[in-house]
Amino acid sequence: MDHAPADEDHIANATLGQGAGYGVVLGLGGAFAIGMIATTFILKRYNRELQTSEMFNTAGRTVKSGLVAAAVVSSWTWAATLLQSTGVCYRYGVSGPFWYASGATVQIILFATLAIELKRRAPNAHTYLEVIKARYGTVAHLVFMVFGVITNILVSLMLIVGGSATLNALTGMHTIAAIYLLPLGVIAYTMVGGLKATILTDWAHTFILLLIIIIFALTAYASHDLLGSPSAVYDLLVEAATRHPVDGNKDGSYLTMQSREGAIFFVINIVGNFGTVFLDNGYYNKAIAASPVHALPGYIIGGICWFAIPWLTATTMGLAGLALENNPRFPTYPDRMLDSDVSAGLVLPYAAVALLGRGGAMATLLIVFMAVTSAFSSQLIAVSTICTYDLYRAYFKPEASGKRLIYMSHCVVVGYGLFISTFSVGLYYAGISMGYLYVMMGVIISSAVLPATLALLWSGQNKWAAAGAPVLGLATSLTAWLVTSKKQCGELTVQCTGSNIPMLAGNVAALLSPIVFIAILTAIFGIDKYDWKSMLEIRRGDDHDLAQEAGVDLEDVNGGHEETQAEFDAEQAKLLKAGKISRWTTVVLALAFLVLWPMPMYGSGYIFSKPFFTGWVTIGIIWIFGSFIGVGLFPVYESRATLIRTSKYIWKDLTGKSHIKTIHAQEAAVVGTPGDQTPPEKAGIKEEVRSS
Predict the structure, then answer these.
(1) Which of 305, 268, 272, 300 lies closest to 114, judged by CA?
(2) Can you spell out the DSSP letters for 158-207?
(3) How would DSSP label each residue in 362-397?
(4) Cis (ω within 30 of 0) for the bond into 230?
(5) Fewer CB under 10 Å: which end of the chain, C or N?
(6) pLDDT category, 1, cuts 50, 70, 90?
């Protein structure tokens, strides 16, 4: 399918010129790359962080809860989070944003339990696949490696395909150019800074993203000349339902949670997102990077804060699109949007143009760029750690030095970025959109969710059940998907296979069929009696060569020293307690998001009154401000001592009041020997008092 004519149409009608597209992709992308490279230099010079293989892939395992939460929010805020959620709102009304948000929040919250167990069972792991290999051996390891990499590929494709389509729609920038240029800056700063740079960039992107969402919401519901209040939006939604009632919604209304197609999407959404969290090594990377006491609060805060992003973004922009589509300001006026454009994620940019003109187009361009690049950096690290530790070190060079491991990580980051861009070009010419990939992903990957989870939670799962259930589940889900498509449409086309009923059949079969296969294989081969010891034997990378080359003692950098048995036991006790807390917390929150909140409104068929809709929107706006505090401001507050100390060191160094070597010597004199684990923040405070 040749897409060139579509590109030409967008060039003619684009709100922003191509210069804006190239300026954001190359200019802003380059600025972030330079900023993160500079940050990496500052951390090395003033915080004595040496870029070892461990630091590159695990960020030193010392990240605090605020940054963990920001990284989780950023990694889970794909282009689809903003574009797809707005599209389902345009299709189904107020239920769409909630079904999207709740159906993708519970996975992050539930994953908190798995994050705790990973840190407790395998404290030195770099990937969850290392845990699979340590417990089940080579066959299961290879099976899960395939599922894990496919998960990363599907997520990466959604990011680049969705982002490039939006760039083309807003600026006229050719889609192929956008596909190849979007990853450039991300690859640059990921190569230099590794996981630490990715997490810091995640925070910066999330901060900007939340500010723009707040601007959208306050414009639509408080200051816009055509909208300007929940009451005005409500009236226009009632008019929209009169013009084109929603098939399957209560009375055809856009203002009800009772939506048949919305509920089907809800199930598809839940199933698919279990796969993209529980099988995406990027989320395990965040858990591994977190210090033990910060993993649980990081994931809980992240999940709760993330909920507001798709919920309020879609409730604002999806409903604004419906309210304004009958106005000459809307790009498709006097026609409704084509279903293919909705699937491509163009409701958000079109609504933004109608709402704020060129400013709305630029704001959309920024948030999509932030979402795509920050989430893609997580995918780069996820795949590089898999290829480095689960492929290269596991099967080709077990005794690889730290320098060699970093070299492999760099090669994979570049190679994977090029591979995804090239693959995205193929999907573009085949007519496969972001929306299609989003609903299809569960069919392909979700059969491995339950076996992967049980690997950390149940000692009884044997290796045959672990290795066999995902493969058998995949065969079942593909069969259910394609047979349902054939029966419903009579032929297998992109449009038919991407429709709700076939996707529902395939997704549900993928997630639930492994229950049967695990039971059968456990009955045949018996219950395992695993003692969890082999996971503790996973070893860290040997970075002594890098330390020697840098002329430093490995004990003196990255805050690291050999952990004593007493420290290990204390850490395990904290994690055990956190694990118990996480089980209750995550179950209660999951029930609230999936059952207690939405189901009474769905079952009753309640159509929102104007006061209820006003309250609904108000809660969303309050929530997004809470999210801004939780993942925008809290990480800064939590790291205030380090930020102040580093700023003072930079000032002293720049003004010549003290050389960096003198600063480090004074700090070492106060702290004591390398084995003394006085936190760097306290060490900095002592040094400052002493120098004054």
Answers:
(1) 300
(2) HHHHHHHHHHHHHH---HHHHHHHHHHHHHHHHHHHHHHHHHHHHHHHHH
(3) HHHHHHHHHHHHHHHHHHHHHHHHIIIIIIIIIII-
(4) no
(5) C
(6) very low
What residues pair up with 249 in beta bridges, in sequence order? 259
> What is the average pLDDT across 241-266?
91
Q: What is the pLDDT, as a whole number, of residue 681?
A: 41
Binning pLDDT at 50, 70 and 90, where does residue 99 land?
Answer: very high
User: What's the token pair of residue 272?
Assistant: 């698919």
What DSSP string runs through 70-85? HHHHHHH--HHHHHHH
- Count other Cβ atoms within 10 Å, centred on residue 559: 15
- What's residue 4's pLDDT? 37
Residue type, 278: F
For residue 677, the model assigns a pLDDT of 40
Percent of the chain with pLDDT strictly greater than 70: 88
Mean pLDDT (the chain) is 84
Residues 6+ apart with CB under 8 A from 67: 199, 200, 202, 203, 298, 635, 638, 639
Side chain identity at residue 67, one-letter code: L
* Cα(37)–Cα(41) distance, integer angstroms: 6
- pLDDT of 671 > 50? The answer is no
Of residues 422, 520, 530, the one with CA closest to residue 157: 422
Burial of 600 (0-12, 13-18, 19+ CB in 10 A): exposed
**pLDDT surpassing 60 at residue 684:** no
Residue 158 confidence (pLDDT): 87
185: which residues sit within 8 A by CB, 6+ positions away?
25, 26, 28, 29, 30, 32, 33, 373
Q: Are 676 and 559 in contact (CB under 8 A)?
A: no
391: pLDDT confidence band, cut at 50, 70 and 90?
very high
pTM, entire model: 0.84
Contacts 24+ apart (CB under 8 A), 353-359: 353/15, 353/170, 353/329, 354/320, 354/321, 354/324, 354/325, 354/327, 354/329, 354/330, 355/216, 355/219, 355/220, 355/224, 355/227, 355/317, 355/320, 355/324, 356/216, 356/219, 357/15, 357/329, 358/15, 358/16
